[in-house]
Amino acid sequence: MNIGVLALHLDPSRSGVDAAVHALVKEWRTQADITLYYSRMNPAARLDGVNYVKLKGVPCYSFNVEAITSAWSWQKLALLGRASRHDLVYSAHPLFTPSDALTVHFCGRDYLAILDEAGWGNTPTSWGRHLCHWVENRVACAVERRVYGHVTPESPAFHVVSRSLGEALERYYPGCRSKVIPNPVDVDRFSRRPDSQNVWESVRSRMNWRHEAWRWIFVGGGWERKGLAQVIEALSYEDPAVVLMVVGKGPVSMYESVARRWGVEQRVFFAGPQGDTERWYQAADLFVFASRYESFGIVCIEALASGLPILCMPFKGTEMFLEDRKNGYRVSSPRDIADRSKNLRLDRDGYTSMSVAATASVSRFSSSRVAAEMLDFLQDARSRSVWRTGKGSLP
Predict the structure, then answer these.
(1) Strands in the chain per DSSP E
(2) Percentage of the chain with pLDDT > 70?
């Protein structure tokens, strides 16, 4: 099968969506002819056996400018016959049409409802970032209404990455009936137990931390949404020997101020983006993630595969991987995070049992297994494509 894959970015270290697309393409390239259309790509993500076509998108992530301009670029190529060169076109973003199949990673209306209920509260952000975020999400909602609010025979087949995301989507767009296929994760990469001693020793010596420190790790960007401020606050309720490593891109100076406010500035290390996150997971004892909204949470799967128990808020997708009190805990507040951490820190037998359960709980998310399920989904989408068979008009 000849598959055209539409992706805004291709940088597995940047986001869960990028990581998922990269994992799928890596598996599919031995079973199909793959052409990947992209706006921006990390050169390290380039794979042998895959054709790449760059879309002419304006490289401005704010206000969805890059997504909109890249989608226009794809539509021009499609009208020139590019889409018809493929047996099937698969998209990871609802703006990219025409396509035969689409993965739904996000529901903007659901996200805004959750934010309105919770309020910004302790979330540190500037007015500029808040305004940009507000506009981006309303653009996302408009795109969703266009794609999910008017389902027709010409609409692409779509699936969601978690059961709870599918329920939210059907609540806001009753015409949508979605299949659930989780995001793929390179489980083997994170379960190989790479040497992490150099990572820990480098951080420990730089921060003057004790050898026996109990180590939390937070991985991800979008720190406002993903609750880094709450994780830092939780650190202030734990023993002074507990420390936090933050891996990912974000407004460091703003969160250094948060750490100073809670008196833990000497216990938080901002590592920045890292290409070898598997070594950072292995350098930690516990994964802590207080996100307000996710649709799946790939970083949680990576942490579990690394043998780390996880503490996370009950966002969408946790029902897919979090077995409360077995491979981690659902937490409700910074104090709850600290209490659960203390329980695990003092109960070493319980911690070991939970670590073993964490590793054992992620096999169903392996890239090979999910990629095979996705290929079946794509084959079905190909067989029922209306616009491609000429029974409908080009969307």
Answers:
(1) 2-10, 33-41, 50-54, 88-91, 101-104, 157-160, 179-180, 214-219, 242-247, 268-272, 286-289, 310-312, 328-330
(2) 94
